[in-house]
Amino acid sequence: MSVNSLKFGLAAALAILSAPIVSAQEALSPDEMAALCHGGGSICVSATTPVARTTQAVQSWMSLDVGAAWAAGYKGKGVTITIVDDFSSTSRFSGNFGIGVQTQRHGEWTREEASMIAPSATIRSKDFSTGSAVPLAAGRNVLNLSYGMYTTAGYSVNQIGWAPEEASIISYATRGSAVVSKAAGNDAVAVGGVTGGQQDYLDLALIGKSTAIFVGALSTNGTTANKAQLAWYSDYAGSNPLVQSHFLVVGVEGDKTGLYGTSFAAPIISGYAAIIGSKFTKATPVQITNDLFNTARTDTLANYDPSIYGKGEASLSRALAPVAIK
After folding, report:
1. What is the pTM of this model?
2. How confident is residue 229, by pLDDT bands cut at 50, 70 and 90?
3. In which region does residue 180 sit, left (phi positive, over 0), alpha (psi from -120 to 50) or beta (all else)?
4. Is residue 63 within 8 Å of residue 221, measured between CB atoms?
5. d(CA 147, CA 75)
6. Residues 34-39: contacts with CB within 8 Å, 24+ apart?
7. 196-221 pLDDT, tens per residue?
8. What is the tens place of the pLDDT at every residue in 126-152?
9. Backbone phi, then psi, for 316, in 5-degree steps?
10. Confidence of residue 326 (pLDDT cuts 50, 70, 90)
11. Pairing between β-strand 93-95 and β-strand 122-127 as defined by DSSP bridges
12. H or E segment and range at residue 271
């Protein structure tokens, strides 16, 4: 069947999957904003402006692994990261990634974060309100999804009439054509769980897909001396082993940036995937995804439990350590 669904990460957008039947309501989250686009009559133009490189200085909110990867010459070259997000609304908010306070749209923030982690990657912008299929670039691709598709709980994924946009993303994750980094959500429930009578059907559709990565947020980057905990708002892996095996966490240090939410966890993983691809230039998206899972750390997490942290905290240094990946 066809349903209305909410797209949101830090921002929210009411997007029509096909003909409207049910009106979806977004549950409150720590990074909630006003709706961006309402109904089929809204016109939202795809963003085509290329991202401007900001800085290659390691910022205090980043893991120290990022600087080590750059020093070794791995910055994402040869990999394309496509940010599927809001690039056309009038909704903006302020934050600071260490280069000064800015006021930007949600997509501009997630795009900037990914480009700061992987400064040599090619960055593309795809406005999520248009509904058109997401094109892939030649070579290795990473897709960043800092939003969800919410409507009334209880439908099966097969009942959802996906727009070409989400249909293409789900297909890429199923076939292993691109690494898909998906923000886990900000309702402190298990991935795909019910909150306020709603479920994120994009989460549900990506469960079990080979290159889908669900990304939760830690309140800080973890170390063995100072172990990190899941941020209070972050969704967690839950009891489904298919989710646990595809769930990673990274630090989202909002006390330093003013930006909170799993929206800002996903671009870190997108950047890591690009950096890994710039070292292992013949690696497939499946190999890059599995490298992230297989090298995640559990010794930097307080009271590690796979139902909370999944595979653990992503470790860029460990992911880059092998001579080759399979």
Report:
1. 0.86
2. very high
3. beta
4. yes
5. 25
6. 34/91, 36/11, 36/12, 36/86, 36/88, 36/89, 36/91, 36/129, 37/13, 37/88, 37/89, 37/129, 38/14, 39/14
7. 999 999 999 999 999 999 999 999 99
8. 999 999 999 999 999 999 999 999 999
9. -65, -40
10. confident
11. unpaired
12. helix 266-279
Residue type, 69: A
The identity of residue 71, as a single letter, is A
- Which has the closest alpha carbon to 114: 261, 268, 285, 254? 268
Is the predicted pLDDT of residue 167 greater than 80, yes or no? Answer: yes
What burial letters (b/e) apply to 158-183, b meaning 16+ CB within 10 Å?
Answer: eebebbebbbbbbebbbebbbbbbbb
Query: Scanning the structure block, which residue is given the tokens 């070409």?
Result: 164
Q: Where are the domains of the chain?
A: 3-320
Strand partners, 82: 124, 143
Question: Phi-psi region for residue 238, left (φ > 0), alpha (ψ -120 to 50) or beta?
Answer: left
Q: DSSP string of 174-236?
A: HHTSSEEEEE--SSSSBTT--BTTEEEHHHHHHTT-TTEEEEEEESS---SSS-B-B-TT--B
- If pLDDT is split at 50, 70 and 90, which confidence band does 11 have? very low
Total number of residues shown for the chain: 326
Closest by CA position to 249, among listed 298, 166, 309: 309
* Mean pLDDT score across all residues of the chain: 85
Q: Return the CATH number of the domain spanning residue range 3-320.
A: 3.40.50.200
